[in-house]
Every structure is written in structure tokens, then in C-alpha cells.
Amino acid sequence: MENERLQFSVCYGDPQLLAARGYGLVADLPFILDARPAYHRLGSRYLIDRGLGRWHPYTRGTRELEPPAPQTIHNYAHWLANFLEWADVRGVDIYTCSYHEHVSGQYKTEMVAGLWSNDGRSLGAATINPRLLQAGDFLTWLCDKGYREAFFEVPTELKRIQIGKATDSYGYRSKQISAREGMMPKGDGKKHRMQYPSHEAVGEWLERVEARFGYVYRLMCETVCLTAVRRAEVVGWRADTLPRDKSEWSSLIANPDTAYEHQTIKAAIIYGAKGKSYEGKGRDGNIVKLDHGDKIGPRGTIHVPLPLADNLYRYLTEPKLRPAALESLKQRLREKGLSRKAVLDQVADTLHLFLDPETGERIDDRQLYAAWTGVTLPAKGWSPHRGRDWWACSVLMREISYLKEPGLHLPMNTVKTAVMDVIELQIRPQLRHANSQTSMIYLHWAVDRITSGMAIQYERAYDERNPVAGNKSLE
After folding, report:
1. 121-126, Cβ contacts within 8 angstroms, sequence gap of 24 or more
2. Which residue, 201, 210, 304, 319, could crosslink 378 as a Cys pair with Cβ 3.0–4.6 Å?
3. How many CB atoms lie within 10 A of CB 459?
4. Per-residue pLDDT tens digits for 214-240
């Protein structure tokens, strides 16, 4: 696929302008521009229905569901735009195409063969499957809404999967599920083979981020690596996520009897958190599910290393850092002709901790991702989500180093049990995984790194006991 064919794009409007014109309900949702370029009516309408929870492939519009997170609908838009562009370039009619022949057939085949990729390389399951899912959902939506006369169905097959774990009261159990046909196999678990960059490599990467994008972006990246918060959670971090008054910190320090560099302070995470959306009251008293653009998610408690907490406090208070960004915001608002009161009100309403030093506006997740990946990376596939994995692996490596001290000679079963305890008691609560099985992938990663190969020693031992036999040459 030549680059000049990449003509479909995902765009966003100005939320304030859209809200002022009566489109506030969809002001934050993406839309698709086609090759003309023009507003792609059906693709964008589908995103509205999905973004507002009005249509879902499981409910088919029979009832409304909770809207997906902003990043989720953003991903839906890009996956759908890719399929729509493919259909446009290949001359495939979205009103008559079929799942077997076109979606899981031609579209999937071209992605596997590299005929529909930027660099001509074969795409993997992690890229192909979400695109196939969105293509199928969109074509199903076309039927449900009456835009398509030809019947469309995504065929499914019954599969049996294993659930539970050995320590459950019922042990491992199996469950039968309905899965779409034509999906690419996900492989044997890439995460347990992931690269683990050294602390030195990560430190050098952070320095490169700071040199190119500035200290605030380095601090955001460092916060992800040292606390395992998600990208949406770090951009939603508020100025008062940690108490502004440091005298209140002492009651929140989890381990005050340890050395300073090992101490952690507990912080509540709610904005941008993954999981069910919760409701809160806005300043006008109305019930809201978003607060200053952030999803109100399930409340969780994490541990923040005290040295990092001190750096966050320094960023919050030092005149050259966040206060300087607020001054930039004031200046921009004055230049717009806002009154002094309006300027002060907007500055007082700036609740996010991390602000762009040039504009004073909050740094969003796309800006953070651009900074994270905008320099030479410490490892292949290094991303904010991989930063969460790196934190978990760092914790495991630290605990394993204690277990492998000279003279201990612990059996593998004991080490494995200790590693599982670390995962359940430290890693899972910090990552806030709803299912323990999600965290258990780190067990496989750890076992791979502590397993020792077995050498065949008996022949050598026999030869040492029998010098004559050991020196006898083969005839």
C-alpha cells in the first residue's frame, strides 16, 4: 500500500465550538474524513452510536450500554478508517460485501501478506484482529440501521477455554465461549518474552526525553515507570492527587521505618482509571461521568515512591516549573481579551498537575505518547503500557535477587511460590488488575529467567572416577 493512498483520517473538532453550537454530546468524539476529503457520514455516525453507548455488537441497539473510554473509541475510529480506506482503494462495496470473501478473506489476506501495510511487511494478530472486529461490527451496524439491504453475518464457532487457577477451591475449570471465525491466532504469549531494559537504559532514555521535550514530559514518563499508572491516569493526575500540604504526608507513608529511598506514600487514583465509569457531582450540582475531560473510574490506591513524590511536589511548587506554565496560560488568556476575573477563574479551574510549559494547557495522552516514543527507545516495543510491565518485572527481579542470594539454594517450587505471592500482594494491587490471571503472565516471565538448564554430568563424573575409561579413545 503506497503512502499516497493513505487518505482516510481520524479527526476531532473543537469541543468548545461544538458545544456552543448544540453538539456538546458528541463534542469529544472522533470522526472520519474520507479521500475527497469530506466527512464520512456513515463511518462517523457509527462512531457516534458506539461512543454514546447506543449500539454494541452484543446488544444490537436493544439497550444502551456504558460508553467506551475515550482511548477505546479513538482506537475504534482508526481501525474502522483503515478498513474503509481499504474498501475504497480496492473497490469493495460496503453495502454488498461479505464476511468470508472480503473481510476475513481478501482484507485479512492482504494484511497477512503485507500488501496492505505501510512498509510491505506482514502484520501480526494484534493489528489484524481489531481491524477485522471493527469491520464486522460496522457492517453489522449498517444492517441494523437499514443502510444495507444485503444480509451480513459474522460467523462464530464454539471454543472451550480454561479459567480459574490451581489455588481456587474448584481448581481449573473450562468454559465454552462463542468466538468469531477468521481471527488470527494470538501466538503463545509475547509478554513473557518481552525485553526487559536495564535501569541504566531506562535512565538514559528519560534523559533523552527531557533533552528533546522538557522536564515535565520526563517526569510524566518517570511516573509511569515508577508507579505503573496507565497513560490516561498520568495525564489525569491532579495537583491534589498528593496532598499539597506536605505535613499531611506522614500519615500516608506506608513504611516510615525504612530508609528514605524505600519509603512509599499512598495515593488514590480515580481519574482515567480503567473499569466501570462512576458518577460524581459537578460544580453546578449536576451528575457527571467526566471531570475536566477525564473519565471517573473505579477508585484504587497505589504506592508512590517518596523520592518521586518529592519530585512531583517540586514540579508543583517551584516557580520555574508548573507555576511558570500557569503564567503562560494567564498571558494567553489576556491576549484573547478575557477580563481579569475570567483569567483568574480559568487558572483556578486548572486542576491537572502536568501542564504544557508553552501554553499552560493540560498535557493529553497523545502528547505524552509522542514524547515517550519520540526519542531512541531503550527496547523494542517500548510504550507507556510496556512501562507498566517494566515496573512489574523490576519488582520481580528485585525479589528474585533476594531469593537467589549465595547459600540459600532454595528449591524451584519455593521460589515459584514466593514469586506468586509477590504478584498477588504487590504487583496486582498496584496494577489494579481485575482478574488475577492477567497478572500471572509475569509469573511465566519470571520463571523463564530463573530456570537453569540441566547439563549431563554423569559421564564426566564416571570418567573422573575411572581414569582409564576416561582416556580410552573411541574405536
Report:
1. 124/184, 124/187, 125/183, 125/184, 125/185, 125/186, 125/187, 126/186
2. 201
3. 10
4. 999 999 999 999 999 999 999 999 999
Return the SS3 of 287.
Answer: strand
- What is 359-376 written as a DSSP string? T-PBP-HHHHHHHHHSS-
Structure letter (DSSP) for residue 275: S
pTM score:
0.69
Do 340 and 399 fall into the same domain? Answer: no
Total number of domains in the chain: 4
* Per-residue burial over 252-291, b = 16 or more CB atoms within 10 Å of its CB, e = otherwise: bbeeeeeeeeebbbebebbbbbbeebeeeeeeeeeeeebb
Q: Per the domain annotation, does 441 fall within a domain?
A: yes
Q: Supply the range of the domain harboring residue 320.
A: 199-373
Integer Cα distance of 127 and 82 in angstroms: 11
pLDDT in tens, 411-431: 666 767 777 788 888 888 898
- The reply to whether 83 falls in a domain is yes
